[in-house]
Amino acid sequence: MYRRTVWFAALLVASIAILLPGPPSEAASDLEACLAEPMPPKQIACLSKAAIAAGDPATCLRADHLSVRWPCVALFADHADDPALCRILPADEDVPASVSRDLCRVHLAVSRRDPVLCEGLTTPNLGDGCYYQLVETGGDPALCERIANPDVKSVCALDPEQLQ
């Protein structure tokens, strides 16, 4: 639960930061500053902002870490109103492209509150996690019925008082 909260908080910070205006400066130096940022949420926000300013989601792919690339692309795709942009994510070391693309779609599903984006995910359990996150963030509890994993389904939409 704590890790999920931290993950959502980091993405929230990144989402808000791309909306804040920054001082005008040269794009190349901005991009290099983004890539040098040691804190992933700040790097995600910075790269997303640079990608949006450039109109180029490939800017996100310059990040060294997968954990920065897919959220950056997801924020760009959300801004561009184009979930298909998640498809630009390539494979990374030991991680297939499908995992990054599915993570990007889950982020979009939660940020847009759109369960359709949870459909057709190929990464095991990510579809269930997508529906669960939608319900956890205020979505329709009926989405719990779409969860295949019985363990996840059993805790979906439980009243917090039932857990005590």
List strands and helices in order, with pairings:
Elements: H1 2-19, H2 27-36, H3 40-54, H4 66-80, H5 97-112, H6 126-136, H7 150-155
Helix pairs in contact: 1-3, 2-3, 3-4, 4-5, 5-6
Average pLDDT, rounded to a whole number, is: 84
Structural class comes to: mainly alpha
* Rg, Cα atoms, Å: 17 Å
Tally of helical segments: 7
Residue share in helix: 55-70%
Which parts are unreliable, with pLDDT below 50 for 5 consecutive residues or more? Answer: 1-9, 16-21
Q: Major beta sheet, specifics?
A: none
Secondary-structure element pattern, one letter each: HHHHHHH
- Beta-strand level of the residues, as a percent range? under 5%
Total beta strands: 0
Per the principal axes of the C-alpha atoms, what is the gross shape? elongated
Q: Give the termini separation.
A: 15 Å
